Amino acid sequence: MAAAWIPVLCLGVCLLLLLLPESADSQGAVPIAITCFTRGLDIKKEKADVLCPGGCPLEEFSVYGNIVYASVSSICGAAIHRFSSSKSLDNIFFHFSCSEHPKIEFYLKNFTSAKDVLLAIKEVGFRGGNSNTGKALKHTAQKFFTPETGVRKGIPKVAVVFIDGWPSDDIEEAGIVAREFGVNVFIVSVAKPIPEELGMVQDVAFVDKAVCRTNGFFSYHMPNWFGTTKYVKPLVQKLCTHEQMMCSKTCYNSVNIAFLIDGSSSVGESNFRLMLEFVSNIAKIFEISDIGAKIAAVQFTYDQRTEFSFTDYSTKENVLAVIRNIRYMSGGTATGDAISFTMRNVFGPVRDSPNKNFLVVVTDGQSYDDVRGPAAAAQDAGITIFSVGVAWAPLDDLKDMASKPKEAHAFFTREFTGLEPIVSDVIRGICRDFLESQQ
Questions:
Q1: Domains 4-97 and 255-438 fall in the same CATH topology
Q2: N or C end: fewer C-beta atoms under 10 angstroms in the chain?
Q3: In the prediction, which pLDDT does 26 show?
Q4: The CATH number fitting domain 4-97, selected from 3.40.50, 2.30.30, 2.170.130, 2.60.40
Q5: Higher pLDDT, 336 or 168
Q6: What is the predicted pLDDT for the residue at 40?
Q7: Which CATH class is domain 131-247?
Q8: Which CATH architecture has domain 255-438?
Q9: What pLDDT is stored for residue 92 in this prediction?
Q10: Which of 77-81, 269-273, 387-391 has the lowest mean pLDDT?
Q11: 279-284 own/partner pairs: CB under 8 Å, 24+ apart
Q12: pLDDT of residue 19 exceeding 50
């Protein structure tokens, strides 16, 4: 019998090269003896030579698809279905090859017509490999959905993941990353594991760990790969329901962040520039647009000055340019009045906004007025406060202003140059609080 390639989906896609037993001898290979029910996932190698026993019964296998999908059956079962329609085979030697790396076949921007997309899908090559669904989903969330690859502003990001059987790697972290990047993940599971196979499943709740929300809307099941046409319309109807795409909202595109910047005399011009750099480094991370994140800034001494409000600028470039050009005021320090001013004049006009509200207070000294009452009023109004203190800023004031838990929302550095490391802490805190608010 001539050598032939057998495509098999072994909780992913694995390729099997069928060879006669004497071919193994000629190549000096030492095959691994497997059972009739060994599956691709059970072999923890990228490549392996395997030997099927004789007498594997055809009737005990369920192999799906017209190319031989063996994720819920076995390597040997795949061979029987491929080369024999009514009887088992004698001992068979295979070369088994699996690929572990996700590959993007084409981007959103590559084709503009349904006809071209269909042709491109038909040209997708058979790769091989375990179903590293977690790795593939994380790669897709981080690399696929970008403006450079064709993502359009205001259009939901959707990933439909087809899983035959179950994932061979951890999918929970990938699901978290996808939600953080605003990707609405749908899981279409095919041929769920039977009770006898549950012991081999890394996480039986893998669907709930990956989908956008665990409300049933983002999960879909097909019993097998036969007759899939009837499942297409209900799935498409879900994908076209934009108002249900709850994961399109992320901490990067669905927040209002106001910066309350201390312009008192103790700061000084050069240190004030370092404060503005700190504000810019936080602001530039967010997706600022007319339908996305909004940024505002207020400078304060004894008086307050709105440098720009949430509705003044709708591009990141304009926001960053305005921050760079803020003029230093100089004066005293009345942080409590400044919080009240910001809540009333900056957050007041956007009180009906769907975005979550954050206030970042940056100060270098003790306030001459009470901060506890104004901060509590702002938090009661739904504004989460981060307090960042430098030099002589009292820790008690920082904690009085900060939202709970205090240790996660209050930061201090002795030097203005120490503001830079706090940038990532504030960004992580905003994203953490946003995700918790969406639960």
A1: no
A2: C
A3: 40
A4: 2.170.130
A5: 336
A6: 63
A7: alpha beta
A8: 3-Layer(aba) Sandwich (3.40)
A9: 46
A10: 77-81
A11: 279/323, 279/360, 279/362, 280/320, 280/323, 280/324, 281/420, 281/423, 282/257, 282/360, 282/423, 282/426, 282/427, 283/257, 283/259, 283/316, 283/319, 283/320, 283/323, 284/316, 284/320
A12: no
| pLDDT tens digits, 177-199 | 998 888 999 999 887 777 777 77
